[in-house]
Design a protein that fits this description.
heterodimer, A: 58% strand, B: 7-stranded mixed sheet, 4-stranded antiparallel sheet, 11 strands
Chain lengths: 113, 115
């Protein structure tokens, strides 16, 4: 059974600081996704990581994937208040067929001015 | 505009009263899926469908039914809702690759309360 663990689950930080959210998963994966969810809203796709060593950046967010370590990171650079949200990683297991994604429990990020 | 829509967005009902939550997508996606989101548990898949008339159970299918009679629609049916089905429900859709679905697009969510 595929397990996906995110940490931390809760993070409060100040604007201007850097931080990293970690996503570990337990089996071989084809694809890894990062989603953002604002309170009361749906999930918005941030990044799709498809291969070992993949790195994607959008603004102050950068995601990377190390399939050998079964680890993805979401790095926040010089955080701003607008990035406050809950961030989920989701993993598609290699050979898992159409079972869909297995999600981590989410990281609730609060960025204080 | 490409989107996944769900209705209703909010629903309060009583135990045992059958209900249906509709889901529709306009992107011609083969793959559709239902998730429930509960505090501290993240999102868990209920059912999924790879195409018309093809559905299968996800991780938490008990108490739910689905149907896929048309490609664009994937309704979630609760025949006899119970309080433990109080949750936030998301429908998602994606293209289907040779091995598994691609990036999933999520609907706005349906908040269901069963009393």
């Amino acid at each position: 059974e595929l397990k996906v663990e995110q940490n931390p689950l809760f993070l409060s930080m100040q604007e201007g600081k850097n931080y990293t959210i970690y996503c570990n998963y337990s089996t071989t994966s084809d694809r890894l996704y990062w989603y953002r969810q604002d309170p009361g809203k749906s999930l918005e796709s941030l990044f799709v990581l498809l291969s070992n060593g993949a790195v994607k950046q959008e603004g102050r967010l950068m995601a990377s994937l190390d399939t050998k370590a079964r680890l993805s990171t979401l790095h926040i650079t010089a955080a701003v208040h607008d990035l406050s949200a809950t961030y989920f990683c989701a993993v598609d297991e290699t050979g898992g067929g159409a079972d869909g994604l297995t999600f981590g429990k989410g990281t609730h990020l609060i960025i204080q001015p | 505009e490409a989107q996944v829509t769900q209705n209703p967005r909010y629903l309060i009902t009583v135990t045992g009263k059958k209900l249906t939550v509709t889901c529709s997508q306009n992107m011609n996606h083969e793959y559709m899926s239902w998730y429930r989101q509960d505090p501290g548990l993240g999102l868990r898949q209920i059912y999924y469908s790879m195409n018309v008339e093809v559905t299968d159970k996800g991780d938490v299918p008990e108490g739910y039914k689905v149907s896929r009679k048309e490609k664009r629609n994937f309704p979630l049916i609760l025949e006899s809702p119970s309080p433990n089905q109080t949750s936030l429900y998301f429908c998602a859709s994606s293209l289907l690759g040779p091995l598994s679905p691609y990036e999933q697009y999520f609907g706005p969510g349906t908040r269901l309360t069963v009393t």
